[in-house]
Write a structure and sequence with these properties.
9 helices; D-Maltodextrin-Binding Protein, domain 2; alpha/beta; globular; six-stranded mixed beta sheet; five-stranded mixed beta sheet; 2 domains
Length: 250
């Protein structure tokens, strides 16, 4: 298993945070929308996970209390736009979008996964063309133009929010490849191995076709965003995100 990519974020965060800004005047509850079904980043039933703990730590250092709100990934933007939450996690800037985006605070390492027995050779994103690909929700939006050209609107291409189903489809031969965050894939494999499913983990090939995505927090309030950026930079320098990831086996 590769080292969790917090070092990739550290340089970017620290380089971008040479400005100074003030903390909010008083403590408050901060409602943050998180995507469901992204274990080990978010465990809704436990109010825990790698991403939850990183955000909670930053907000606590600001004197605030995190109140997680769990919604499907595709609804994160909708909940933010209707002002149901103070912030939306795991976000990327979009043209014309409202709000104030933080610097990247967490990296997702997306990969393509195939069965080793099928001996697919995928050296570049375009090699996915012609395969039955099952990807995570909004992959065609997040993974860039080359990816969209290779797979979007191709026969057999799907985007689904159920990551366990991605693994099961791969192992039963209903997908040639799945596109999924690496640590999420590994967690789903553990569930399959321990559960009463007809599909069980098999030998796979991990194809590292994508650069890590540095996700941002989308805030309603600029001052809160500025303070969050400072605290993420501080805890990253202290190695706290890496320590949190190690607690979850990454």
């Amino acid at each position: 298993m590769s080292a969790y990519p917090f070092r990739w974020l550290q340089a970017a965060i620290c380089a971008a945070l040479l400005l100074c800004c003030g903390l909010p005047a008083g403590a408050r509850e901060v409602q943050v929308a998180f995507a469901t079904t992204v274990e080990p980043f978010v465990f809704p039933r436990r109010n825990s996970g790698i991403e939850i703990e990183i955000v909670r730590t930053a907000l606590q250092r600001m004197g605030h209390e995190l109140v997680p709100v769990y919604v499907p990934a595709a609804r994160l933007g909708h909940e933010f736009e209707r002002k149901a939450v103070d912030a939306a996690a795991t976000s990327l800037p979009e043209p014309g979008a409202s709000g104030f985006y933080s610097e990247p605070y967490i990296a997702y390492e997306n990969v393509a996964v195939t069965l080793a027995a099928r001996k697919f050779r995928l050296g570049q994103i375009g090699d996915l063309a012609g395969l039955r690909v099952v990807a995570f929700q909004r992959a065609s939006q997040y993974l860039g133009d080359e990816y969209r050209r290779a797979v979007y609107q191709r026969p057999g291409y799907q985007e689904i929010g159920d990551h366990l189903a991605q693994n099961r489809l791969l192992y039963r031969g209903a997908a040639d490849a799945i596109v999924i965050e690496r640590h999420i894939f590994e967690y789903q494999d553990r569930l399959l191995a321990a559960g009463k499913f007809s599909e069980k983990p098999q030998q796979v090939t991990i194809h590292k076709l994508f650069t890590p995505i540095g996700y941002r927090m989308r805030f309603q309030d600029q001052t809160l965003r500025d303070a969050f950026d400072l605290e993420i930079a501080a805890i990253t320098q202290l190695g706290i995100p890496e320590a949190i990831a190690r607690k979850y086996g990454y």
